[in-house]
Specification:
Strands 2, 4, 5, 6, 9, 10 and 11 form a 7-stranded mixed β-sheet that branches. By secondary structure, this protein is an all-beta fold. Helix content is 0%, strand content 48%. The protein is built from no helices and 11 strands.
Length: 126
């Protein structure tokens, strides 16, 4: 069983930065591609970014390009989302998720991700 635990959320002013982390509990972290999604109140969950199994490839939603950076450290079994130049519209609960080896990737479809964390709140004030 895989458990994902996000951390690093909080309140930040517009233009500021936050770094989210997601710790993976399993022994085979490198067998999962990882992604970040977010969901604002009253809105559907949306894709933010994804990173391949060894971190060699990354993909971003248009809203994240140029401001967010996804990365992973397989030795620490952790995936990160560095968020810069934050905007009030980035306010959401951010979730990390895992896609097992052999699954379709890259993908921005949340149905493709098998495991999910509990989420961490990011609030950007204007």
């Amino acid at each position: 069983q895989v458990q994902l635990v996000e951390s690093g959320g909080g309140l930040v002013q517009a233009g500021g930065s936050l770094r989210l982390s997601c710790a993976h509990s399993g022994r085979t972290f490198s067998e999962y591609a990882m992604g970040w999604f977010r969901q604002a109140p009253g809105k559907e969950r949306e894709f933010v970014a994804t990173v391949s199994w060894i971190g060699s490839s990354v993909y971003y939603a248009d809203s994240a390009k140029g401001r967010f950076t996804i990365s992973r450290d397989n030795a620490k079994k952790t995936v990160y989302l560095q968020m810069n130049s934050l905007k009030p519209e980035d306010t959401s609960v951010y979730y990390c998720a895992a896609v097992p080896w052999g699954s379709r990737w890259p993908t921005n479809r949340d149905q493709e991700y098998r495991y999910w964390g509990q989420g961490t709140q990011v609030t950007v004030s204007s």
